[in-house]
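Possible regression after last week's pipeline update?

I re-ran a chain I had predicted before the update to compare outputs. Posting the input and the new output here so someone can diff against the archived version. Not blocking, just want to make sure nothing changed silently.
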Amino acid sequence: MHNDLHALRRILKNCRTIAVVGLSADWHRPSYFAAKYMQSHGYTIVPVNPRYAGHTILDATCYASLLDIPHPVDMVDVFRRSEDVLPLAEQAVQIGARCLWQQLGVHNAQAQAVARDAGMDTVTNRCVKIEHARLFGGLNWVGVNTGVISARRQA
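New output (post-update):
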């Protein structure tokens, strides 16, 4: 499991195309907020949600399954229940993803083992948006209290 700072920084620097499984089209959902944040920081977001397949979310075509994505992805970011992650990990291996990221509250040890055995990086129970903001700046980007009160923007 790669939940240490150096590994997280490496993963976030190298995994620039993110398939977000369970991405909602509702702006107020955590998956939408996290994906929009990552997109605004230069990442390519690939929505994966059978409910919205063929439609667009965040100006990107949504796919029903990881196996339907017609181009490579670096990271599979999972916004699903822990018990739903194992088949997603198997699909992530099939499509050649380099990282399986299980969001806050999501941890499936079996899925993690499948990904790790295939040589993938794995992250569990962490938010990609929060980790990016923490490691690369941007914790003040709505939603995280940095504890710093200032009227001046950071340079």
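Follow-up from reviewer: compared with the archived run. Residues 78 and 115 are 13 Å apart (CA to CA). Marking as no regression found.
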